[in-house]
Amino acid sequence: MPHVILLGTLDTKLEEFRYLYDRLSLAASQSTKTPLKITLIDCGREPATDDRISITHEDLVAQHGDGTALTDLSRGDVIKYMTQCVKRCVSDLVKNENVHGILSAGGSGGSSLASAVMREAAPIGMPKLLVSTVASGDTSPLVGETDITMMYSVVDIAGSNQLLRNILNNAAAAMVGMANAYESLLQEEAQNADRTRMRVGVTMFGVTTPGVDKIRRHLEERHGAEVFVFHATGHGGRAMERLVQDQKLDAVIDLTTTEICDHLMGGNMSAGPERLEAALKAGIPNLISVGATDMVNFGPKVSVPSHYSDRQLLEHNPTVTLMRTTPEEAKKIAHFITNKIKTCAKDPSKVQVWLPKGGVSMIAVPGGPFADSTADEALFQALKDGLKGSGVEIVEDERDINDAGFAVDVAERLVELIRSLEHTTYNVGSV
Amino acid sequence: MPHVILLGTLDTKLEEFRYLYDRLSLAASQSTKTPLKITLIDCGREPATDDRISITHEDLVAQHGDGTALTDLSRGDVIKYMTQCVKRCVSDLVKNENVHGILSAGGSGGSSLASAVMREAAPIGMPKLLVSTVASGDTSPLVGETDITMMYSVVDIAGSNQLLRNILNNAAAAMVGMANAYESLLQEEAQNADRTRMRVGVTMFGVTTPGVDKIRRHLEERHGAEVFVFHATGHGGRAMERLVQDQKLDAVIDLTTTEICDHLMGGNMSAGPERLEAALKAGIPNLISVGATDMVNFGPKVSVPSHYSDRQLLEHNPTVTLMRTTPEEAKKIAHFITNKIKTCAKDPSKVQVWLPKGGVSMIAVPGGPFADSTADEALFQALKDGLKGSGVEIVEDERDINDAGFAVDVAERLVELIRSLEHTTYNVGSV
């Protein structure tokens, strides 16, 4: 039986969530699946009353709060507190019951609560749909690295009108469809539990795309691997590390570590200070390279911080400005990498660092706008110095990061590392 | 029979769209509805070959192109050209056949093509779902004022892996669910074609919310109206005007015209130069006020253009900075409004301009941070001067825009205007 959680801020939107609930039931009645189970959680600032509520506000706070009296909190703090309660509640539901989807609807406040719960209490892959007044704009604070689906409500989510009913009706039906399909997929996966295809994550950027494409095709065609390619936009690095933590990836080719530059230098594609840690801590085969570490990403040129105004800036397009990293910054990047490896690597023999000395990106090759052999040399030397005695192999290669031969060698060395695993069960032979 | 259009850039993503197509069919087989009709359009830069294709690349270009040879165009121009062809093709399908949803998936290029088609060739309300690598970020160029639903792909949409299959599977199932529900909704609507509830659009901003809430409740509770509230974020104004053009609204209370400030002064919530035109041209009952014209919206304070650095700026929060409009700017705003009224009003007797002299926003009342009687007076005087001889009634009211009595009077005057329509069929009596 498919099971959907409905997160409702019922103190202000009871009518709208009653409608969503009833349309979920209606859509489910048109499916061949067994009846839908709906868990409606009352997530508002104050309790509401309705027969449809599965987990009341009182129970939510009593079972998942820390005993703080809501009346002691400011309006903003009540929302934060409720968000924590709902996260714990949904985490428990996901852990202890089969859950096949989470649905909510709200303005900016409700979207913030619901998306935090969806991001942190549910796995990637489980359907998550949020109807929101703020979905036509910057959704990254809401979606982050996850697969939350955002439906713009067009009108305010208040009262009832033809358009709002139409949109909420679409949302309810989408959720029923997804929950049914997700339940079926989980059953399919359980039946195919003797999985033998290795799952490899690879990080990519526009300027490393030819190399990554070659790696992907080589691993797929020659070794029957499943390759997951992540755009190194900040979200991509985080998503890959999250999947490693969830044991959804068996090995990693972290070819494009440019997010480290943005973290250190204040660019807009940082994946945070924990980048690189997940795969190192997991001890899975892990090839790290320095793709696109020649650049820090900013938005429109006017948005580049003023202390960088005298730097080499490349306007990629009106909304993307790239800054060439300096030798000093290259050393910081190298230090970040070597420090993570030395402090986090569970098994250094599974880690390799690859240095494409012919150029770390498509535009850092000789003659390219970001060609800078001094910065590159500083990067490579600092990496070599920093990894002395670490037990991690460094592979120096004269080719550039997009060279097809380099890509094949990277892929083959990863396969070797995987084959060297004790009790390997992956089919990594030629296919 | 539900009918879904699948927009596929098949030259680069044939495998992925074959999977989507097959999962659409599978999801449909688990529904109680009659079989799903899928129209797969080959939208890539070059033709692809597959049995599933309904409208081939050749047919698309032959029937919807202007005769230009694709080989004469640059790579970028091919995409623009194909976008135009697909728009015309989908417009024809929507006009001549029943269509219940549009689905696509792509990277930044594919998302741009598919979203342009969804925005411009399909009505608001029809399910539109786009799986995209760029959905966790600024979606406004893609979604605009429409209800396009964005699903972040987490991984690159290339090849096949567990996660990508999971996400595409969710998307296909969501689309089948929505298409079924939308078909049912259209049938319900057709049966209820003797609609008598008037549909009123109202524009709102945070600083006019109390007034709009009061108007909405009054119209709903006293007059049985369906009230559509639009956030004046740029998208909201455009959405309201689009619904007026589509004859989905019978009357408008354009209480919050702040988007005009952003259009004229370069703020980030402009609804474009055609704001106000749709309702005036339609000749429907139309009450215009000047809500939140005390402010121009910008992002973080550092993003305010330097030529405004000496102006009165209010940091609403870290991502929103408001600039108080000056008397000179107030005159420009008034000129924009009076000019639109004089050039576009089909029936001036249906238009009224309301001046809340006690304050045009929550923060422009006496003692508020944006209180400025000189600017307000300049605005009101320029409106009165500009509308002399126009036949449009101006209502001067000493109360502020959020005053409950003001809200009720605005609502009642709209109802009077509606009642004065010849052959009115709306039930606007007390309920």
Describe the structure.
2 copies of one chain form a homodimer. Chain A has 431 residues and is an alpha/beta fold. Chain A has 2 domains: 3-190, 3-Layer(aba) Sandwich (Rossmann fold); 199-419, Uncharacterised protein family UPF0261, NC domain (Rossmann fold, 3-Layer(aba) Sandwich). Chain A is built from 13 helices and 14 strands. Chain A has helices spanning 10-29, 57-64, 75-96, 108-121, 140-143, 162-191, 209-223, 235-245, 259-265, 277-282, 327-344, 373-386, 404-419; strands at residues 3-8, 37-42, 101-106, 128-132, 149-152, 199-204, 226-231, 251-254, 286-288, 295-298, 313-317, 320-324, 351-356, 393-397. In chain A, the strands form 3 sheets. A 6-stranded parallel sheet of chain A has the order 7-6-8-9-13-14, sandwiched between helices. Chain A has a 5-stranded parallel sheet with strand order 2-1-3-4-5, sandwiched between helices. Chain A has a 3-stranded antiparallel sheet with strand order 10-12-11. The first copy, chain A, starts with a strand and ends in a 12-residue tail after the last helix. At the A-B interface, strand 5, helix 6, helix 7, strand 7 and helix 8 of A face strand 5, helix 6, helix 7, strand 7 and helix 8 of B. Strand 5 (149-152) of chain A pairs antiparallel with strand 5 of chain B, so a sheet runs across the interface.
Q: Provide mean pLDDT of chain A, rounded.
A: 94
Number of domains as seen in the coordinates of chain A: 2
By CATH, the superfamily of the largest domain in chain A comes out as: Uncharacterised protein family UPF0261, NC domain
The largest inter-chain interface, given as chain pair and residues per side, is: A-B, 73 and 73 residues
